[in-house]
Design goal:
By secondary structure, this protein is α/β, with parallel strands linked by helices. The protein is 49% helix and 14% strand. The protein has 25 helices and 18 strands. Helix 17 (407-419) runs parallel beside helix 21. The radius of gyration is 26 Å and the shape is globular. The N and C termini lie far apart (60 Å).
């Protein structure tokens, strides 16, 4: 009852201020409001969770754009904003997950009991709503700002040199275009991306070549914002394991035998694709391949899989209507010039996209060509090119640490030691030592290394990135941590001579696109505040088994040169990461089983055993070919 009063009291107070004193305008407002109110009540009866979620979003927008002046109205509006901020934990922890699960459960129920045509229609409708910006993730409002007027004028006039200087220069430091050009090596291209209301401008610069501006008109700032909204829906689906929870709720809604449950899981996994994709245009557009499963549950939620494909296709080739993709336009300039390496400087609007996973082409057999197939790609925050230290080729000495009590860490450490015992050391967070002593011992260990790798759980704070953290030790429940380090404190522990930091944890590479904090993401802070030359991090929650395979292969290339014992040729981290991603993508089912058995022979793993069993029962020829498995990892720095 108190919660109800708390919700409606400020709302009624605001309503009274808007309709009194009476006037013709107030009367029109009152009648319109009543019409909306009754519609809301009917919708609330039919679908309470969905209606309440949409109502909260609309009211928030309504308050944001109140135009009626007056101190009292401003104060009530501020009270309302405060109220919504207080309600945010409820939205995040209760309302949104229930809404996701109930919607997903409907799709699953339709698939199991009513056939695939209905579930296809529902999923496709939802994807279109997300990509058009009509379904917005309320829990993470996205900031996509328009570039400042001066910069837009340079872009529209084709003045690329001044545009680059405008981006790179700061109030305390003026950077000339020549200085920027000198930092680019032969065979490389620097690509800036800026989203505007007129489309996306790409500034392409090569060494000793005048910069050129490329405009992709179909990629407006609003379209980028819509795609980001879709991306965050995907992120939440994976982070909260919504799909798996919805499957279990759907299967167990009625009493079923174990045999029936297993049959339903298998039925859902093996939906006939020719029925599901009865829309031939979409089939040709996405060219689906079968999704690997574990215990009958697909490794990638089917709606998420479709949406990932759609976003990467938009980035690469463009939609069916416009047939103009962002990277299609840029590739037309870069590929004929023999560019092999791209230093990508995206503005905040593009900071969440795995551009290296952009789909450039799909042949008649359904084989996809990604941007990664043509180029090495390293990312760099705009305005930091002259501030990032160049990578120093030197014999690596790697310090490995992670989340104690997590199998991911023990398996990863054992195999790194087996791979290169002379250049790998360890640090373990102790439960018996306080935070200060743990930090002291970490700094002492890190002072002897020139590269760090974290294996374990990471968490991104959407509101304040400085509170994002790395979990260092699981608690006794196995669900939380009794030792962790926040981004704010982690950067204080990094010695200035560290060259490379690899953060193999969920969401460690997410930038602060929703935060007004002075802190940036892990990669930006490590590059700019700690003097690190290169950072490998992740865009989204990562599956552990293919991650171990990818990380192990990356270090095989980086620590051993060409991946062979005794090799003396050191590879750049970006080169090693790209090769590892291409390797994982091309791994066949038999090869994956053999690799996991080899890793398990060094350190036994229950997860590996389950994955091997799932692979043996699967008919998927390339189990980790989907970008979900490999494009989450990306390189920042390494110039």
């Amino acid at each position: 009852m108190q919660a109800t009063v708390k919700i409606y009291k400020p709302f009624l107070h605001l309503f009274r201020k808007l309709i009194f004193p009476p006037s013709r305008k107030s009367l029109r407002f009152f009648l319109s409001f009543n019409q909306i109110l009754f519609k809301f009540l009917f919708d609330l009866i039919r679908d309470p969770e969905k209606t309440f979620w949409m109502m909260m979003e609309q009211v928030a927008e309504f308050i944001e754009f109140i135009e009626k002046p007056g101190d009292e109205i401003d104060q009530v509006s501020q009270d309302f904003r405060t109220f919504f901020q207080e309600m945010q934990p409820v939205l995040e922890n209760q309302l949104i997950p229930n809404f996701f699960i109930s919607e997903t459960e409907k799709w699953i129920g339709a698939t199991l009991e009513k056939g695939s045509a209905l579930v296809y229609t529902k999923i496709n409708k939802r994807i279109q709503r997300v990509l058009e910006g009509r379904n917005k993730p309320l829990f993470a409002p996205i900031i996509v700002t328009q570039p400042r007027t001066e910069l837009i004028e340079y872009l529209k006039s084709g003045d690329a040199a001044n545009a680059i200087e405008c981006i790179e220069s700061t109030p305390s430091q003026h950077i000339s275009f020549q200085h920027v050009s000198d930092l680019i090596s032969e065979g490389s291209a620097l690509v800036y991306l800026l989203a505007t209301d007129d489309g996306t401008f790409g500034i392409v610069t090569q060494k000793d070549v005048p910069p050129e501006i490329v405009l992709c008109k179909s990629f407006t700032r609003q379209k980028v914002k819509n795609l980001l909204g879709g991306w965050i829906w995907l992120y939440y689906w994976h982070r909260e394991m919504v799909y798996a929870r919805a499957i279990e709720r759907s299967i167990h809604r009625r009493k079923r035998s174990q045999e029936e449950i297993e049959g339903l899981r298998e039925a859902y996994q093996r939906i006939p694709y020719e029925l599901l994709f009865h829309n031939q245009a979409l089939f040709d557009h996405l060219q689906p391949t079968e999704i690997p499963a574990n215990n009958g549950i697909p490794a990638i939620p089917f709606p998420s899989w479709l949406l990932i494909e759609a976003i990467l296709r938009e980035l690469g080739k463009g939609d069916l209507a416009s047939n103009e993709g962002l990277w299609q336009r840029l590739d037309e300039k870069l590929y004929p010039r023999g560019v092999k390496r791209i230093i990508l400087c995206p503005d905040k609007a593009f900071a969440l996209f795995p551009h290296h996973g952009a789909i450039l082409n799909i042949d008649r057999d359904g084989q996809k060509e990604y941007l990664l197939d043509r180029y090495e790609i390293t990312y760099l925050p705009q305005g930091t090119l002259a501030k990032v230290k160049p990578f120093k080729p030197q014999p690596p000495h790697l310090l490995a640490f992670g989340t104690e009590g997590e199998e991911f860490l023990s398996v990863g450490l054992a195999n790194l030691h087996a791979l290169a015992p002379d250049c790998v050391s360890e640090w373990h967070a102790s439960e018996k030592l306080d935070r200060a002593e743990n930090n002291k011992r970490f700094k002492a260990k890190a002072s002897e290394a020139n590269a760090l790798i974290f294996l374990g759980h990471g968490s991104h704070d959407w509101k304040d990135s400085s509170r994002s953290f790395l979990g260092l030790r699981m608690d006794r429940s196995g669900k939380g941590f009794n030792r962790w380090v926040t981004l704010k404190n982690f950067v204080k522990l990094i010695p200035p001579h560290i060259n490379l930091v690899t953060l193999a944890g969920c969401g460690t590479g997410l930038p602060p696109i929703t935060s007004l904090s002075d802190y940036k993401g892990f990669a930006e802070e490590l590059l700019l505040r700690c003097g690190v030359s290169a950072v490998i991090s992740t865009f989204w929650p990562i599956p552990r088994t293919p991650t171990v395979l990818l990380i192990h292969q990356f270090h095989k290339y980086w620590l051993l040169g060409n991946g062979e014992t005794g090799s003396t040729k050191l590879l750049a981290p970006t080169t090693a990461l790209r090769r590892a991603q291409l390797w994982l993508r091309a791994l066949t089912r038999e090869q994956a089983i053999a690799e996991l058995e080899t890793l398990a022979s060094v350190q036994s793993s229950l997860e590996f055993a389950e994955e091997i069993q799932a692979l043996q029962a699967s008919s998927v020829e390339y189990p980790y070919a989907h970008p979900y498995f490999w494009s989450a990892f990306y390189m920042t720095g390494d110039i």
